């Protein structure tokens, strides 16, 4: 999981019962927590691998000399790669914590502090990258429907560069120079030492939660207009295409909220109840985070996949003679297979090329 509160456990502690981390540990079953992390991260790794390799195998030409859906699939692959690396970080950290039975390093245990901080930075970095790839998928969806070009170089620069900056700055302030973030004397020092890492974590999550639904609403309206305008009509067939796209957009947003809303709830509770912290509730939220954060990879594999009907996966083929992209005997690649009588109205390339996602 990616959580600034757990990352503070990498710091040296005093061993005093007045130490908040020690009070939490007294009520925290670290073994069961690490088992949950181990199971969920393993499932996340499987989900990531499922997304990465079939995408490369199933890529094919569309008749125009381009790879069908290559822009969407490339973003999905890089999102899965980031998920895979983050899940590996969670797997390694929880495995070693299970082995050595200690989450909080002993007061003079420099090796444990170093290991904890490195694995925390690794996990934080790659999960932050997944948030940006999720954002860029939504941006590129809208751009594709509008018939605009993709900007993969810009996407890569931001998706890998910004997490490096936010993770490096947030954790450096937290750990440097001596990893003593528990025995802070004043509220001001706590704000200056701990809050930057919380902002580096929660601001990108909140940004995606706010921006992505707006982008998908705009994309849905754009699809609705583009499908209806060519024939100046909006029949049940056009409605089915639009409704299915909107459903897919909705499920993508739901998955992100389900996986990352507990983290925001945890952050709000920590900072609004700092002096009267409900420890049992906080621990319960940690279990939810430990389960849902790595599960993002598996859930993404479900919502970003090609949509199937009657157990058959539909793969569109576009011929150069179908310049208007009328699809006789075939249907929107998003919908799967249906009887030939359900012909679609002509669809613009932007929608067809992105529909399988």
TrEMBL record:
<keyword id="KW-0472">Membrane</keyword>
<dbReference type="InterPro" id="IPR017452">
    <property type="entry name" value="GPCR_Rhodpsn_7TM"/>
</dbReference>
<dbReference type="GO" id="GO:0035643">
    <property type="term" value="F:L-DOPA receptor activity"/>
</dbReference>
<keyword id="KW-0675">Receptor</keyword>
<dbReference type="GO" id="GO:0072545">
    <property type="term" value="F:L-tyrosine binding"/>
</dbReference>
<dbReference type="GO" id="GO:0005886">
    <property type="term" value="C:plasma membrane"/>
</dbReference>
<dbReference type="GO" id="GO:0072544">
    <property type="term" value="F:L-DOPA binding"/>
</dbReference>
<feature type="transmembrane region" description="Helical">
    <location>
        <begin position="195"/>
        <end position="219"/>
    </location>
</feature>
<keyword id="KW-1133">Transmembrane helix</keyword>
<feature type="transmembrane region" description="Helical">
    <location>
        <begin position="281"/>
        <end position="304"/>
    </location>
</feature>
<dbReference type="InterPro" id="IPR001414">
    <property type="entry name" value="GPR143"/>
</dbReference>
<dbReference type="GO" id="GO:0050848">
    <property type="term" value="P:regulation of calcium-mediated signaling"/>
</dbReference>
<dbReference type="Pfam" id="PF02101">
    <property type="entry name" value="Ocular_alb"/>
</dbReference>
<feature type="transmembrane region" description="Helical">
    <location>
        <begin position="154"/>
        <end position="175"/>
    </location>
</feature>
<feature type="transmembrane region" description="Helical">
    <location>
        <begin position="249"/>
        <end position="275"/>
    </location>
</feature>
<feature type="transmembrane region" description="Helical">
    <location>
        <begin position="74"/>
        <end position="92"/>
    </location>
</feature>
<dbReference type="GO" id="GO:0035240">
    <property type="term" value="F:dopamine binding"/>
</dbReference>
<keyword id="KW-0812">Transmembrane</keyword>
<feature type="domain" description="G-protein coupled receptors family 1 profile">
    <location>
        <begin position="47"/>
        <end position="304"/>
    </location>
</feature>
<protein>
    <submittedName>
        <fullName>G-protein coupled receptor 143</fullName>
    </submittedName>
</protein>
<feature type="transmembrane region" description="Helical">
    <location>
        <begin position="33"/>
        <end position="53"/>
    </location>
</feature>
<feature type="transmembrane region" description="Helical">
    <location>
        <begin position="112"/>
        <end position="133"/>
    </location>
</feature>
<dbReference type="GO" id="GO:0032438">
    <property type="term" value="P:melanosome organization"/>
</dbReference>
